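Let us work through a complete example step by step.
Step 1: write down the sequence.
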Amino acid sequence: MAGSLTDLRPAQARLIAAIADHGQLQVAASLCRMTQPAASRLLTDLERQLGTKLFQRTPKGMEPTPAGALLARHARRLQHDLARLADDFTDLRTGRGGVVRVGAVTGPALGQLVPAVQQLKTQTPSVDVSIEVAPSLTLVQALDRGELDFVLARLPPQMDEQDFVVEPARDEIVQLLVRASHPLLDRGPVGMAALRDMRWILQVRGAPIRNAIDTAFHDAGLAAPQDVISTSSLLAIIALLKDSDAVAPMSKEVIDLMLEPPVSADLRRLELDRLLTVAPYLIMQARGRVLPRAAERLLLLVQASIRQM
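Step 2: predict the structure and record it as tokens.
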């Protein structure tokens, strides 16, 4: 069986990944540019070689078995690596700067990733950089699928740490953003009791910053806020703050950016009487995957930036 897998052909890998993604053999065959009978034969031959079923036919379509899910996962990585091989070879032949696909949660995106990308673009203007800013689960799943080179995120509990190369980075400091006319601004550092009856603009339950706020109230012997609007949209937060005395917790890097001209938009930092932090984020790469040269350069710049903090 192991020998059969080491001889897995790219066409087989593409087909397995496409069936797992779309659940229909006909759709997968079309995406792989083959007829449905040819795709069926390819799948049957592979299952015979491996001695196990890879998919079960159900009323909802073709569902991967545990063996099929495992194979599909690695097949996606093979596809990614072959695509990157083609890109890197083209870069080598044409002298282009290469392609980088990275992701981060909001604070590290602004504090470490964006400055590092600007530095990389100064060194190699032709490099093609794509930045994905999203929650950790979205980023780590994309990393696992081979869609991102590395991410600055936290490891979600449903993901297996053994699948990744993990490097500790740093804590995020949480601060509070309010409008310039907020009644608590002239009181100096405020305690949690003074904030109990305020309207809060928070991320969804379970998000790191929301957990930090709930914990701060609990540590002060108070219940978590009840008057809450949940959103992660920065534009929505600005609009909500502009016309109310609501309080929005954000990472320090985001608030620093929000208070700099020309972004500031009549907003202020509300000083707390305590330091709030969330669990450290990590620099994560997919284990066993080779980074493109441009991604390696960007990773070194990010690592250097974090070490200097």
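Step 3: interpret the result. The mean pLDDT is 89.
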